[in-house]
Amino acid sequence: MARTTPPRPVDITAVFPEIAPLARTATRLHPRPGTPGVRDSSIGGPLLWPSDESWPLCEESHEDGGDFTRLDAERHRRRILSAAWGRTPRGEQFAITPEERAELDRLEEEDPDPDTPTTMLAVAQLFLRDVPDLVGPPGADVMQILWCPRDHAPLSCPALLLRWRRSADVTDVLAEQPEPEIMEYDTYLPEPCVLHPEQVVEYPYEDFLPGHLRERIRIWEESSGHRYFSELSIAGGWKVGGYASWNLSGPQQMACDCGADMELLLKIGGGEWDRTGSWRPLEDAGPQSEFHEYPNRWDPTAITIGRGYALWVFTCPVSFDHPYGMSMQ
Ligand SMILES: [Zn+2]
Ligand SMILES: [Zn+2]
Fold first, then answer.
1. Reported confidence tier of residue 116, pLDDT bands at 50, 70, 90
2. 113 falls in which pLDDT band (50, 70, 90)?
3. Is 229 helix (H, G, I), strand (E, B) or coil?
């Protein structure tokens, strides 16, 4: 099922025509639980990986301040919760059995030791054909993202590996995909999701608007009741391209060591929409079942960074070989 972002509550270019040249497209990925294959775009799905290419390990140092969990245990925990919520009618008490509760308690008590070095975990695979705002190096048609699901300095978050490849080069696909045994937080394991990409229009984070326009928008917000930041500027959820948000740290410049300003590649994690529901797709608006859903529709990938934040990944426009940048907002 396609996912459709509802029309913005007001056409900002009709109110402030001078903002029109700042419009930029972004592709919302709209991940939803599913069973993606190696030739599909996905979050948390299998990667199209050549059998003769070694699987990456993380050799960076780790902060090791979290609660380590086995990936197997977390999948088991999610299956229990999904079954129990799936038989809980909306508005009624959580229908978990005593056996399931005991099993959750047992999983909670596990305290596995971190292993080193850490095998990287597949996080996302995006084919250019599916994501209009994705731009890759010449000849490449798929971007793969892996991460080490442990905290690294300076942001205390997973370390990423971005790999571009030409899918036609992969004839012999790695059958069994390696993964780490443990992770630092259970929110670093993506739920396998298929994608329903949709292109939307965004406008700059408000602090980056020209000063006079920002001031006029603030005055207009008071009289109109609309909110530029949450309703009109930057889309919710996982997305490629468009503008970056700076609502946690305040605006910062993302510069590459080569001197170029980096561009937003991808937003990882965070809820698909906020309490206002402004960015909730039309198809997700009403309850589709009398029972609860787990994972929640607004958090389909189960990925959370820090206390409910998202990771914003930036790349250098000069070269795909220059290191990526990250911000947590
Ligand atoms: Zn690591
Ligand atoms: Zn650079």
1. confident
2. confident
3. helix
3-state DSSP of 10-26: CCHHHHCHHHHHHCEEE
Measured in angstroms, how far is the CA atom of residue 117 from the centroid of ligand 1?
Answer: 8
Distance (Å) from CA 40 to ligand 2 centroid: 30
The upper half-sphere exposure of residue 17, i.e. CA atoms within 13 Å in the direction of its Cβ, equals 0
Q: Which domains does the chain carry? A: 12-68+112-328 (2.30.320)
Ligand nearest to the CA of 156: 1
Torsion sign over Cα 64, 68, 74, 78? negative
Distance 319 CA to ligand 2 centre (A): 6
- Who has greater pLDDT, 275 or 244? 244
pLDDT of amino acid 117: 80
Q: Which ligand is nearest to the CA of 260?
A: 2
302 C-alpha to center of ligand 1: Å? 20
Could you tell me the pLDDT band of residue 1, with boundaries at 50, 70 and 90? Answer: confident
CA of 265 to the centre of ligand 2 (A): 14
CA of residue 184 to ligand 1 center, whole Å: 10
